[in-house]
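Hey forum,

I'm writing up a methods section and want to include a predicted complex as supplementary material. The small molecule is zinc ion. I've pasted the protein sequence and the SMILES. Can someone with a working setup run it? I'll credit the forum in the acknowledgements.
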Amino acid sequence: MKVTSSPNTLASPSMLVAFDDTDSLESMCTTFLATEIVKALQNYDLIGPPRLVRLNPAVPWKTRGNGALCLNFGMGKGACRMIGEIDDLPVYSYDRMYEDADRRTVTRVSMAMVSKWSRTSEGASPGLVISQGKPSPGLYWKAVRGMMHMEEVTKELERIGAEAIGWEGGRGIIGASAAMAWRPKDRTYEIITYRRPERWGTPREIDDTSVQEMDRDHPSTFNNFDHRRGRRAISPHTPCPVLFGVRGDDPVALMHAAFSVRSERPASWLMFLSNQGTDDHLVRAPPTLPGRSYDFDCTVAGLSRTLVGGHVILPVTTSAGDLDCAAYEPSKEFREVVKALRPGDRLRAMGELREEPRTLNLEKLQVISLVEERRKVSNPRCPYCGGGTKSLGAAGGYRCKKCGRRNDLPPRTAVVPREISPGWYEPPVCARRHLSKPLKRSS
Ligand SMILES: [Zn+2]
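Reply by user p_vandermeer:
Happy to help. Structure tokens for the complex are below, copy them as they are.
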């Protein structure tokens, strides 16, 4: 008898399920589908928390947040913690598993759930990937920072023996594979709560004061509240099943924070491990290719100009050439920082390079150094008698009002105090990208 060992039983076992592009711009939410799949596969345990992986925000066909999901099912062992509740039943996540889930069951159930909940009539192009091993980490980095093509993904999925199912073109297979390929370097968590179905589409009942208090009392959470405008940032504006989502660095503190929000009673909640707020999308290089986001050094090349609509454009020079940076209207007070910059100021800037118009959408910036700004206070004094002078206009120079002699001295100037100081600046909470690392996390 010939005994063959499967590589899947030698490595730590896993039964990974990833999906993406199930929601349209208007409705649903791919994370909600995760709760439906967890519910449908409740005979198995979740191994590790579900993963919510945001991908390149610059890809033209992105859905609302361009986020893909990856779950791992099996029979758990070792430490476990409660990471959610679905229809009043607790959901646990285990550190390890002693047996993976049955591949055929997982495939059949997830396929049924993706078919049921995807919004293909509204332009979604869902993809589902089932695998016992992870794709190469390079797949994640390429999908978060650049563009991935289906052929590359298919080749990698074949190599690892993964199964991919697509609907309406199956564009979501790319994102699903990238989410599965993610090995966190930096990580955050998000607890998302979901509404009872009968409330979908109705105004969300959330007490803003409690959101403000949560933001104040739980410093490891971020992007909760826009204090300047007095607006919460935790709930979406679309009629989707999400009630609110709270993000943070510490899973335990995050749970206390999320439960401190006073709101309508959610139907379920689930904690996700995520690459949100990590800056994983930034390439540390001067901007060259559109559709990518960069982290680069530059020098302000001219004064900013404000366009109709309130967008502020700032010309800069990088080691790869000249570039227009933009602080768009929704970035509100961040635009004042950009307006206060002067030619010669040194910056480190971050943002996405757009194709048309070819501008870099600023996400964050560090003022490294400021030039001295001076303004004219008066004409020069006469160098011969010290008297006052008057300008000779187009001819240039000055003539003394007392002795009548001409001079070419520069006018007298004074240093103007700059309105900004060196340091980091970011747009308000409501205008931030999912992937942008809040300054709060950097300190
Ligand atoms: Zn004089």
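Some notes you might quote in the supplement: The pocket of zinc ion is lined by residues 382, 384-385, 387, 400, 402-403, 405 (CB under 6 Å). Residues 294 and 308 are 26 Å apart (CA to CA).
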